[in-house]
Amino acid sequence: MRKLPILMIGALVGASMATLVSQTHVLTSTTAVAASAETYRQLSLFGDVFERVRQDYVEEPEEADLVEAAINGMLTSLDPHSSYMDPRSFRDMQVQTRGEFGGLGIEVTMEDGLVKVVAPIDDTPAFDAGVMANDLITHIDGEQVQGMTLSQAVELMRGPVDSDVTLRIQRGNAADTIEVTITRDIIRVRPVRARVEDDIGYLRVTSFNEQTFANLRSAVEELTDEIGEDRLQGFVIDMRNNPGGLLDQAIMISDAFLDRGEIVSTRGRDPEETQRFSAKSGDLTDGLPLVVLINGGSASASEIVAGALQDHERATLIGSRSFGKGSVQTIIPLGGNGALRLTTAKYYTPSGRSIQARGIDPDIVVLQEIPEELRGRDETQGEAGLRGHLSGEDEEAAGSSAYVPTDQEEDKQLLAALAFLRGEQLDAFLSTDSENETAPN
Questions:
Q1: Which of 81, 152, 336, 361 is deepest in the core (most CB within 10 A)?
Q2: Annotated catalytic, 280?
Q3: What string of DSSP letters covers 255-280?
């Protein structure tokens, strides 16, 4: 049975669930370990409870729903990223990783019983409607979210293209909620957007789907031709608020800028199953300077790329600390019964760092000017803020700001990246606070 490992942090509200960081190689199966007598006793207890509920509950329950709820309860007790996907969700996830699906265009997770927006996807219905990172969805079409599973909430937000869904949103500490009506649409994720910044190439990588590497390679070639090799000063790779995606794409993106060396390793419970991925010869940019932008919404696959380029001193990281999602989920198909999304490994940067619940610190910390109405609501809690998260090997750290201004002239992180590549002073972009000093490599 083919198993698909992925890396992401939540669920995408398209027609689907799934937004983990993911990889597309086949994992070897682990040796089965015989269950203990105590385990079989507990399973017998489960059977007794199931039978009692089936026979005596006040209303006749759907037996399949009971089993699915029990499976979900078991998996969600492990960590925030393990879950069960029913057949429809599994099909949707497979479509989604190809870069096109139906829905709203938001990345979500659960927090304190409510649906929390991790990030809206650029140029989608949710983005255009003003949905923001850290928004808490309390009601969907008038139905209270409290008490739902993430799967149930996502299912309610799905629907036919051109149909409307109304979300009631709590933003920050505001006592009043706001209502937003969004028209569902086909979400076509453009994983790479490129533009010329005079003598610098700008590459915005929004996700890691099956098209990401091919799109990035084409964009590098086009920018190089447009700017001219003699004028080109370098590239900015913007991975802010990139929630992750396919692991093989993260490896290929890293390899695109490295000539040699390890990119990432994954280590599971069995030491013999440690996997290492290394770069092949060849650099798309012929060694031109790189700046990678990260922030509190940069997770999983984007952290793999950032960590690899930082450890090899191939790029300078600017922005704020990343999310800290350092685990790998494997999608295990269950025949016609959907699939199991199970955390099977942690990943490590080339220097052996685990970023689980810690994140990656940029080389140069640059914080945005936060509008008054968003202050205190611009930060993600990070992986360490998720209930039941896997513990990190280093000191765990809270999240950081995920705010990115829509006006490029107000984007201090981008302006700092452009100035750095041009050899200009960065004093104007750095805060006087000690926490905003240049971070160590």
A1: 81
A2: no
A3: HTT-SSSEEEEEE-SSGGG-EEEEPP
Residue entry with tokens 């760092």: 353
134: left (phi over 0), alpha (psi -120 to 50) or beta: left
The DSSP secondary-structure symbol of 394 reads S
Query: Per residue in 251-267, pLDDT tens?
Result: 999 999 999 999 999 99
| Residue-wise pLDDT tens digits, 343-402 | 999 999 999 999 999 999 999 999 999 988 778 778 888 898 888 899 888 788 877 999
Domain that holds residue 222: 192-325+344-436
Is the domain of 152 the same as that of 220? no
Specify whether 124 is located in the same domain as 233. no
Among the candidates 138, 169, 188, a domain finishes at 188
Annotated catalytic residue, options 16, 207, 254, 300: 300
Out of 311, 363, 378, 411, the active site residue is 311
Indicate whether 204 belongs to any domain: yes
- Distance separating alpha carbons of residues 6 and 24, to the nearest angstrom: 7
Same domain, 408 and 279: yes
List the one residue out of 411, 317, 421 whose CA is nearest residue 367.
411
The answer to whether 401 is a known catalytic residue is no
Q: What is the DSSP letter of 35?
A: P
3-state SS, residue 242: coil
User: Is 286 labeled as catalytic in the residue annotation?
Assistant: no
User: Which tokens in the block code for residue 249?
Assistant: 């794409």
Q: What is the 3-state secondary structure (H, E, C) of 84-97?
A: EECHHHHHHHHHHC
